[in-house]
TrEMBL record:
<keyword id="KW-0238">DNA-binding</keyword>
<dbReference type="InterPro" id="IPR003738">
    <property type="entry name" value="SRAP"/>
</dbReference>
<keyword id="KW-0645">Protease</keyword>
<keyword id="KW-0456">Lyase</keyword>
<comment type="similarity">
    <text>Belongs to the SOS response-associated peptidase family.</text>
</comment>
<dbReference type="GO" id="GO:0016787">
    <property type="term" value="F:hydrolase activity"/>
</dbReference>
<protein>
    <recommendedName>
        <fullName>Abasic site processing protein</fullName>
        <ecNumber>3.4.-.-</ecNumber>
    </recommendedName>
</protein>
<keyword id="KW-0190">Covalent protein-DNA linkage</keyword>
<keyword id="KW-0227">DNA damage</keyword>
<keyword id="KW-0378">Hydrolase</keyword>
<dbReference type="InterPro" id="IPR036590">
    <property type="entry name" value="SRAP-like"/>
</dbReference>
<dbReference type="Pfam" id="PF02586">
    <property type="entry name" value="SRAP"/>
</dbReference>
Amino acid sequence: MCNRFSLTAELADLTESFRIDRVHVPYLRRFNIAPTQQIPIIQQIGEERCLNQHRWGLMPYWGKNSINASLDMLSDRNYLRLMLRKKRCVIPCSGFYVWRTEGKSKSAWRVVHRTLSTFAMPGIYDVWLDSERNEFPMSTVITRGALFETGDPLPVILDEESMDAWLDPRETRPEVLQSLLQGLPDADFRMYPVAPFVENAEWEAPECIVEVSPELSWVKH
């Protein structure tokens, strides 16, 4: 996964598809979500599945690469293993952006699932406390391998059964949780070119997800 994604589902469709019981935060469709911004997340709170929001990216320990955590990192890092056991969430996504590089130029592409208009990415989270003990929850997306020829990490996707198990706080066995993170094959995704303006985190509009001709997707540096 690169450093941008979108969530374009209407709230009614999102709550139905993900069986959300309670919405704790205002919801807006998003077309160009960037690191450090607040993102919609789904978590189990008591008996209810809730829509909440977290900062995208763990801080302050892991710096710029904190928006993703690879499967290998989950096994190697003690702090990630703790989050895996106790602090799991789902990040709903309608598509994510990648950049294909040729020479000194790169083109912007959007990756969507062929059959799922919105899919479930597994996340883990932590809660940072400031000096006044205010809580700031923050999440990272679990990834595996690389996407097509771009070299960008590919987010793991959970099916409905795996999502239920992932959000179940009673499940704490690392081997069971790791087994849920197999992901869907690349063949389930398709890419299409989009306007290069998605590189600008301040550009937040429906035009971000519109398919353009390939020659219009290039950004020159």
